[in-house]
Amino acid sequence: MSTAPASNDVEPEVLEEEEEEGGGGNPRRCAACKYLRRRCGHGCVLAPYFPASRPRRYANVHRVFGASNVARLLQSLPVEERAQAAETMAMEAQWRVGDPVYGCAGVINRLQEEILATQCELARTRAQLAIVVAHGAQQAPPSAAPPPAHSPLPAGGHRVAGMQRQGEQQDVPPDGPFIDPEEFLDLDGF
Amino acid sequence: GSSATPCASCKLLRRRCTRDCVFAPYFPPEDPHRFATVHRVFGASNVSKMLQELPAAQRADAVSSLVYEATARMRDPVYGCAGAISYLQQQVSQLQVQLAVAQAEILQRINHPSPCLCFCNFLKIGKLRRKL
């Protein structure tokens, strides 16, 4: 829980022109004070976390939590945790504005569903993998495909009587870069 | 006239609980803590506004999610719900990685069905070198 989640800020943040309104004596009002049309003093609790460059971010927070609730919550926290709290509140407000019925609870539900679906697919894939592994373990080396007189692949290798050379072996088709099994067994080629 | 027992909201706010009180259907007096939590985090007027902007059929779900969100924020004032969301997103990522690994292993085994054929590859290279 040490990082804030990823959020999709769909709408671009617009830089507003500075307004010359009553109470706008401070040319660097934060987004909150601009929204509330009040003076942004040096002691403004919200100013460090709601810059004027992101007006919609504050508007969402104001709409969902309300100015006094935001300020109260931030003030109740140690200074070093306020930025993170402001950020998570902004994200929750954005989710709520995007989904007025379920808000972040909707996000949680969708993630839980995605986890279940992915767990199912993972279980299915691992079962398939187990089958492939078992099948691979059962597979004898390429000598299993041709006629039964064929001996298994020994360390030294020896030619089996009656076996044809490469080109006449139809049962085991050449497999890309892999050597033809008969050619492998044909040590006369050395 | 007003209802016999004020709803939890009107009780907390100390006002008359009228018949068309927007909170009454969702904040029964038996559970005062529920409204207190929502009021503390969002404020009664914000909740009222949010509910009034929704069709009546969706308000119960909205209240449930607001209660959930407010409870999470009171338990964890820094992260609120976002903490749980972050954790779940990490779980999704980890599962997707595990899935990709398992899928890659299947492909690997299908394309390279037997280790001895890979061994043959080495011999093939050696044999070609001798022929040249």
Automatic annotation (TrEMBL), chain B:
InterPro entries: LOB
Residues annotated as domain LOB: 5-106
A Pfam family matched in the record: LOB
Domain of life: Eukaryota
Family: Belongs to the LOB domain-containing protein family.
PANTHER family linked to this entry: LOB DOMAIN-CONTAINING PROTEIN, LOB DOMAIN-CONTAINING PROTEIN 4-RELATED
Protein name as annotated: LOB domain-containing protein
Species assigned in the record: Aegilops tauschii subsp. strangulata
